[in-house]
Design a protein that fits this description.
alpha+beta, Glutaredoxin, Glutathione S-transferase Yfyf (Class Pi), Chain A, domain 2, 2 domains, four-stranded mixed sheet, 9 helices
Length: 216
């Protein structure tokens, strides 16, 4: 098993957490997205979108898109499950996950930031404000949903981590890295973040603990 990853990628962080939870230890191949490693023809043959992550598992086609990979891992390595057992619980967990992974994260990825700078002449301060806006908007929404839903437990849905927690932790880690409001600003989401980060599967895969992370 091989995982193409980048230290600061939210999407790659999600998959790294899930692999740890499933007890899988892939070979990590790091790409520097800011230097453009993802556009190398050899990598684009694996991932036509030229993004991370890409997971190679066995002889089949490469697996791409983090949420699709999470579903694949849950179906292929079912213990422990990443989704609740009941249909409404699964829908709720997916919805929480998608608020951060699909409604906010796409606005802040490197190719979007680069387009804003090159096409619309956004300066660094304007790009930073753009990023923080979308991160904070998602954080506020998830906090509101978690705080008012009786299914919220130690984790986002009950007392075991699900895809919702994986996506929440990756999102809030990005908030800190990009200067948006951090986990501590949110009562419920912040508590869940700390609960997750007490688990090795989450803590060991934090962006700043990756081999390609900058040394601070």
């Amino acid at each position: 098993m091989k995982l193409y990853t980048y230290w600061r990628s939210q999407a790659a962080f999600r998959v790294r957490i899930a692999l740890r939870l499933k007890g899988q230890t892939p070979e990590k191949i790091t790409l520097d997205l800011l230097k453009g490693d993802q556009f190398d023809p050899a990598y684009r043959a694996l991932n036509a979108e030229a993004v991370v992550p890409t997971l190679i598992d066995g002889e089949g086609s490469p697996l791409v898109q983090s949420l699709a990979i999470l579903e694949y891992l849950d179906e292929t390595y079912p213990d422990p499950p990443l989704l609740p057992s009941d249909p409404r619980g699964r829908a709720h967990a997916r919805a929480l996950a998608q608020i951060t992974a699909m409604d906010a994260h796409p606005f802040i990825v490197p190719r979007v930031r680069k387009y804003l700078q090159e096409r619309f002449d956004f300066g660094n301060d304007a790009v930073d404000e753009w990023v923080r806006h979308w991160l904070d908007a998602a954080s506020h929404t998830v906090e509101e949903l978690l705080a008012r839903d009786p299914r919220t437990g130690r984790f986002c849905v009950g007392n075991e981590p699900t895809v919702a927690d994986i996506c929440l932790v990756a999102h809030l880690a990005s908030c800190k890295l990009f200067g948006a409001r951090e986990a501590s600003a949110y009562n419920t989401a912040g508590r869940i973040y700390e609960t997750c980060m007490a688990l090795e599967a989450f803590a060991a895969e934090h962006p700043l603990r990756q081999p390609d992370a900058p040394k601070i």
